[in-house]
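User: Hey, my collaborator sent me this sequence without any context and asked if I could get a structure. I don't really work with proteins. Can you help?
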Amino acid sequence: MHWIAFAILTYLIVVVQAAAVPFVEVHTIRPDLLVIVAVYYALAARTYDALLACWLIGLAIDLTSLSYTEHANVGLHAFSLGLIAFVIVKLRDLTFRDSVITQLIFTFVAKLALSLLAGVYMLYVVHAPDRFGEVLVTGAYAAVYTAILAPYVHWFLRRLRNLLGIGASHRLRVH
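Assistant: No problem. I've predicted the 3D structure and written it out in structure-token form, which is a compact way to encode the shape of the chain:
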């Protein structure tokens, strides 16, 4: 894996996430392009590269997001996305990695889990556990919106596979 290309791609996605995504939000629901890229790496890269890449993407999310009251949230998304990537890496051999259905399901579950983990932490910090339903609904809508965009971003990233240093996914050979 080419780490300089990964750093440049992550930087560009962070810029697009901050600058362009607010223009496509629907009733404060925004897609999360960084989660899509993390799921792509979790599905396509070698195991250790995928785990490190997803952790770094989570750290980028932490560094570009707001903290809650006097509590910092640096490490929350990194840990959560690292955990989610670990699960995806363990399950990816049971699926067709380049399938649109696989991309949709993994992106939806990853975004929903990330939203719920961050939302539960936020509710804990601001002492408002009674608003969990609100966090769940908002997270589900954001997960659906993110999953809808996933096949397009995965298609684009597949075109950059050689530049990113990610080899082709495993193919079955018939003898």
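In plain terms: Residues 132-159 form the longest helix (28 residues). You can pass these tokens on to your collaborator as they are.
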